[in-house]
Write a structure and sequence with these properties.
The complex is a heterodimer.
Chain A lengths: L1 H18 L1 H38 L2 E5 L5 H12 L4 E7 L1 H12 L3 H10 L7 E6 L5 H11 L10 E4 L1 H47 L1 H9 L4 H42 L1 H6 L6 H8 L1 H25 L5
Antiparallel strand pairs in A: 1-3, 1-4, 2-3
Chain B lengths: L1 E9 L5 E10 L4 E5 L6 H8 L7 E6 L2 E2 L5 H8 L2 E5 L10 H11 L4 H14 L15 H13 L5 E5 L7 H16 L3 E6 L2 H7 L2 E6 L2 E6 L7
Parallel strand pairs in B: 3-8, 3-9, 6-7, 7-8
Antiparallel strand pairs in B: 1-2, 1-4, 4-5, 9-10
Classes of the chains: A alpha+beta, B alpha/beta.
Chain lengths: 318, 226
């Protein structure tokens, strides 16, 4: 009996969805637009996260050592730094590495290369590049270095300079801006979701309103609430599923189109220089398709199904 | 079978639809309720399916107070009452077959019963050839016959027909009345409202005359006194 009831409810829901062509179309358009706003939130958030991560990644501090600093002391300091909870990573650049990098960069500039030869000895100090887990923690790391003030065997300080003060302004600003941007993004996303839910809810309510006489007739012939409401919910879920499918196709198209557009606008080389902008959305869409699928289809089904379920309630009181 | 016990209905705007109405209906009776528009006929009918609630008094179906039933019990009671409305109230997105099948499915009849009974009942109202048509493709008389088919397909104990001929021409009116009489002859109670004197004269039987919410005459000789 339960199976028969479910079969009849599902069949009626499908038939209603098909026969109420214009209303179904209107509902699908509205739900698709709402789901697209969800998609926009997902993409904006992904793009924003990539952008912020890249900016965070570009912020660092460097510790420059004296030319006489022994490598073993520098490596010991690097080991200490790696054990700090604030530090994400450190990179040691020896004097030879620094000279090699400089030479590689300026090898086509004869004047500079001549000047380097005139200096004779390697003028570049060894350094440690430090990346913090959070940009706000660079001050702590700089303070740690100042307090520690490591020395060599003869008691001479080995640190020549920490460039924290030079980067402090941008680090401080980023530390303030990044949480603000993240919070603003969350608020805007929430507002969009609320607007989408209200619009869909009202559309479904109007559709159910047009069926109120049918609902009354069904009730008067003795149909139970589930028998009357069931097909409406099935139709609502159908609106959601079709809308979700359209939205996913639109999102995929947008992800790939936006990448192509960025490449075209910026030029391949420029875009490559700003690597963060290339293929962000398409890569994100591919990598997170399962999650996006669940969010969009889930939102569509919930919006359509739950709205229909609730909207039908007031007309079941016959 | 049915008893209206001192039933009154006053709407919030103070309009009195029913005023201390009491009467009973026996099984297999054919009762015609007559009166001008606004006399309270439809309100009386709606009381029986709990579409309206009395402000005073009670309506009993087989000694059960209808308005004290739970929603579930009300659904079950409605399955024992076949309703025919002046405006047909067919579901426009369903075919003739589906409109009738729905009433059977709603009361839990299996697919085999639905498949055999729906064509049969459509033959009874002479609409076997319109089984796959939609209501918009039917004439007024045909729609009303579909509504009657829907009302009787579940074999209810009582058929309530509220002005079923109100929108029909004389030929279709006669046809509908003939069908209702046939249903009554098959042992069903029929409760009909009309303001058409010709209909009353055709039917004969018990006639309850209403005026301004009151019963002014309950005549078993089939006379329409207004």
């Amino acid at each position: 009996m339960v199976f028969t009831t479910l079969k009849r409810i599902t069949r009626t829901g499908f038939v209603n969805f098909w026969r109420n062509g214009f209303l179904s179309f209107a509902a699908i358009v509205v739900i698709t637009l709402s789901l697209c706003s969800f998609g926009a939130i997902i993409f904006t958030s992904a793009f924003g996260r990539t952008l912020l991560a890249d900016v965070k990644d570009k912020v660092d501090i460097n510790v420059y050592f004296t030319l006489s600093a022994p490598e073993s002391d520098i490596l010991a300091l690097q080991s200490d730094l790696n054990s700090l909870p604030e530090v994400a990573s450190t990179t040691y650049v020896s004097r030879d590495d620094a000279l090699a990098a400089f030479t590689a960069r300026w090898q086509d500039n004869a004047l500079i290369m001549q000047g380097l030869q005139e200096v004779g000895d390697n003028p570049f100090p060894a350094s440690i590049n430090i990346k913090a887990k959070d940009p706000g923690r660079y001050g702590d790391i700089a303070a740690y270095l100042t307090n520690k003030n490591p020395t060599d065997a003869s008691g001479t300080p080995i640190i020549e300079k920490v460039n924290y003060q030079e980067n402090k302004l941008i680090i401080d600003r980023l530390s303030r801006i990044i949480p603000t941007v993240e919070q603003a993004g969350t608020v805007i996303a929430l507002l969009l979701v609320i607007v989408a839910v209200i619009v869909v809810w009202n559309t479904i309510r109007l559709i159910i309103f047009t069926a109120k006489d049918e609902i009354a007739v069904m009730k008067l012939v003795g149909a139970s609430n589930i028998y009357v409401r069931g097909p409406l919910v099935v139709s609502g879920i159908m609106y959601g599923l079709v809308s979700a499918a359209i939205t996913l196709v639109l999102m995929a198209a947008f992800a790939y189109w936006s990448d192509t557009l960025l490449l075209r606008l910026a030029g391949v080389q420029v875009a490559a220089d700003f690597g963060l902008l290339v293929n962000v959305l398409s890569d994100y869409f591919r990598a997170n398709f399962a999650e996006i699928f669940v969010i969009i289809v889930g939102a569509g089904v919930v919006l359509g199904g739950v709205s229909s379920y609730i909207a039908a309630r007031r007309y079941l009181k016959v | 079978m049915i008893y209206y016990d001192k039933v009154s209905k006053v709407y919030p705007d103070k309009t009195v639809a029913l005023d201390d109405v009491s009467f009973g209906i026996e099984p297999k009776e054919f009762v015609t309720i007559v009166g001008h528009s606004g006399a309270g006929k439809t309100t009386l009918m709606k009381m029986l399916i709990a579409e309206e609630w009395p402000t005073d008094g009670a309506v009993f179906f087989e000694s059960t107070n209808i308005h004290k039933l739970s929603k579930k019990e009300m659904s079950k009671l409605r399955r024992r009452i076949g309703m025919v409305f002046q405006d047909y109230r067919l579901i426009p997105t369903k075919t003739v077959y589906e409109n009738i099948a729905f009433a059977m499915e709603a009361i839990g009849r299996n697919d085999a019963e639905v498949a055999s009974d729906v064509p049969h009942v459509l033959e009874l109202v002479d609409l076997g050839h319109k089984i796959w048509n939609f209501p918009r493709e039917l004439s007024g008389g045909e729609r009303q016959r579909v509504a009657i088919a829907r009302a009787i397909v579940t074999q209810p104990d009582i058929i309530i027909a509220d002005e079923p001929t109100g929108n029909l021409d004389p030929v279709n009116t006669y046809e509908i009345i003939r069908i209702l009489q046939k249903i009554n002859e098959l042992g069903r109670t029929v409760l009909l409202t009309t303001h058409n004197k010709g209909v009353v004269d055709t039917i004969g039987g018990r006639v309850i005359t209403m005026e301004r919410g009151k019963i002014v005459k309950d005549d078993r000789s089939g006379r329409y006194i207004l």
